[in-house]
Amino acid sequence: MNPTPANHDGMSAMIAPVLAAYREKRVEDNARTRWYYALPLLAVAVMMLAAHLLGGPPMPLGLNSAMGGYTLAFAYLAVVALGGVLGGRRPRLREPRAEQLLDDFWMALLMPGAGALATLDAANSDISAFTMICLPVAIFHRGPARSTIALQALGFACAATGILLRAPLDPFSRYMLLTVIGVSATVFAYIGIHFERTRRRAFVAAWELATRTATLEELNAHLEARSEELETANRRLEELAGTDPLTGVANRRQLFEAIEREFGRARRFGNQLALAVIDLDDFGPVNKRHGVLAGDEVLRDFAAALRGQVRGIDVVARYGGEEFVVVMPDCSAAAAVQLLERVRVHIAATPLSSRRIAITFSAGVAALNAEDFDPANLLHRADTALRRAKAGGKNRVEPG
Fold first, then answer.
1. 3 in a domain, yes or no?
2. Within 13 Å, how many C-alpha atoms sit on residue 12's CB side?
3. Are residues 256 and 212 in the same domain?
4. In this predicted model, what pLDDT tens digit does every residue of 65-78 receive, in sequence order?
5. Which domain holds residue 186?
6. Do residue 203 and residue 322 come from a single domain?
7. How far is CA 298 from CA 310, 339, 394, 395, in A?
8. Digits of tens for pLDDT over the chain (400 positions)?
9. Which residues pair with 352 in a beta bridge?
10. Is the residue at 226 inside a domain?
11. Are both 296 and 386 inside the same structural domain?
12. Of 197, 216, 235, which one is at a domain's C-terminal end?
């Protein structure tokens, strides 16, 4: 969330969604606070009321007698507490502002009771009952600063009115007691405002963290998707970089990498390795008679047929022009010759391209032996065998 100018309570001004969310959470918390506070208050008020009613002979109710005053005060607090309990732990109104006013009103109903108890305890300079009511209101009740101040001011006003009108105190004692209650109400108001600001900042911080976390997760998901796309594109580029664009088989770069790799593996583990160099017979006349496009189609069909006839682990590559190379790992010379003979027979019996052009090929096969320390030797011997096949009449496979 972008920084914005500070508002009247010193916090960063928040946008509408987080303000609305905070108000909803605040009224939910206030409803729970009202219920949990009302339960012990009801219990204490009922017990104190019962103690005063059962503690002696009947007395006239009213502030003219201390016992009657306590009875009325605790009866009043019991009724208010009962209303808070019956209100439940959840907000009753859909509108957060209206629910806030309802909670403020219930808290305000406690203040005359606190003032009455402060008046009745004034003879002993005791404000514990006043504190036991006003301090929890300041700590747990959540609301704007003005409502917090108003609640504590109402509590002080109720206590001050009762003490000034009814407390049997000399002027100095009355002045000192009112000063203590006034300072206490001021401190309570400060505590309430401070707690509310802290809770509000914590909510905003949590909201910002959740928002940024969601944004980061979305960004990470996007980056992961983009990374997968880039990896796919890179793999595709690598395939294209190692693929002959006309025939779709490996090009010279990938061919030499495969020869180096398989040669090293065969030498290291003592495996067999065979290599065949293939050249299409009399391919030049095909281009002259049928055109270059037809010749390209023949090359594509031949590469597809060759790849379909060899094993899955064999590497088929276009060596250049109409020449192809097959790298055959774990294959002996005899097995390689047998494989190439099968391919030769199939190609000779299968016309290629849409023009049904008959074509043959010659091949030279060489297998790895103990004297081969350079993969170029293997390729050279297979090429030499190819030349012998050409010289021997073409359409044949010659071992090297």
1. no
2. 13
3. no
4. 567 788 899 999 99
5. 16-216
6. no
7. 18, 21, 18, 16
8. 344 444 444 344 446 788 788 888 898 999 999 999 999 999 999 998 888 777 655 444 444 556 778 889 999 999 999 999 998 888 888 788 888 999 999 999 999 999 999 999 998 888 999 999 999 999 999 999 999 999 999 999 999 999 999 888 889 999 999 999 999 999 999 999 999 999 988 988 888 888 888 888 889 888 888 888 888 877 777 666 779 999 999 999 999 999 999 999 999 999 999 999 999 999 999 989 999 999 999 999 999 999 999 999 999 999 999 999 999 999 999 999 999 999 999 999 999 999 999 999 999 999 999 888 899 999 999 999 999 999 999 999 999 8
9. 357
10. no
11. yes
12. 216
Same domain, 284 and 180: no
Residue 228 within a domain? no
Look at residues 124, 117, 128 and name the one whose alpha carbon lies nearest to residue 162.
117
Residue 213 CB contacts under 8 Å (≥ 6 apart), including other chains: none
- Phi, psi at residue 253, to the nearest 5°? -60, -50
Asked if residue 323 and residue 197 are part of one domain, the reply reads no
- Residue 139's nearest CA partner among 189, 183, 102, 182 is 189
User: Per the structure, how many domains does the chain have?
Assistant: 2
How far lies 102's CA from each of 43, 162, 254, 290, 335, in Å? 23, 26, 80, 95, 94
Burial of residue 266 (CB within 10 Å: 0-12, 13-18, 19+) is: buried
Same domain for 190 and 298, yes or no, is no
Q: Whole-prediction pTM value?
A: 0.55
